[in-house]
């Protein structure tokens, strides 16, 4: 499930992942909730992801709350060009702790990493916040495609691992992400 403030790029991230395209042009806010499926090949096993795209607007919050409980994984987004969306992450985490399953897979994404000139949240700030809350982190761009595939693949790997291995053999999500990250504007967390 994709969560985060309105306008951070949740729908664009999902469309980039699903269709490999960027939705340029005017911003159409999601109403309520929407979903798309995508099948990934994870280490030779087909994993079907059902990805729920939530509306970031406050007025749809009660709709979103109802879906948290069934989510196996949450991608929590902020927009690196929007300080408020970053400042709101703590409130999102509180909400997640209140409504989501305790063992939900969670990843923090700083989206719009392509927008160099408009950036107001440094990568280090994202890294610090993620570390503080013990959440894996990376920057993404729905526009350029930076780390989009990686974010979803990492989550799928973690979910597959959980469903097939002993819980004691923990899959190191952040380690995997660090190892796999490449390209401009993204470095190790
Ligand atoms: N530069 C840049 N713009 C982006 C990126 N992702 C999204 N946008 C723009 O940000 C705006 C909002 O994108 P959406 O994907 O609709 O945002 P959302 O989080 O789904 O918003 P809600 O549905 O209201 O919750 C659009 O104008 C997009 O074109 C990105 O990676 N880079």
UniProtKB/TrEMBL annotation:
Enzyme Commission number(s) of this protein: 3.6.5.2
Keywords: GTP-binding, Hydrolase, Lipoprotein, Magnesium, Metal-binding, Nucleotide-binding, Prenylation, Protein transport, Transport
Reaction(s) catalysed (UniProt annotation): GTP + H2O = GDP + phosphate + H(+)
GO molecular function, one term: metal ion binding
Source organism, top-level taxon: Eukaryota
Pfam family name, one: Ras
Protein's GO biological process: protein transport
SMART domains the record matches: RAB, RAN, RAS, RHO
Cofactor(s) it depends on: Mg(2+)
Transferase recorded as keyword: no
Family: Belongs to the small GTPase superfamily. Rab family.
Name this protein carries in UniProt: small monomeric GTPase
Gene designation: LOC114860410
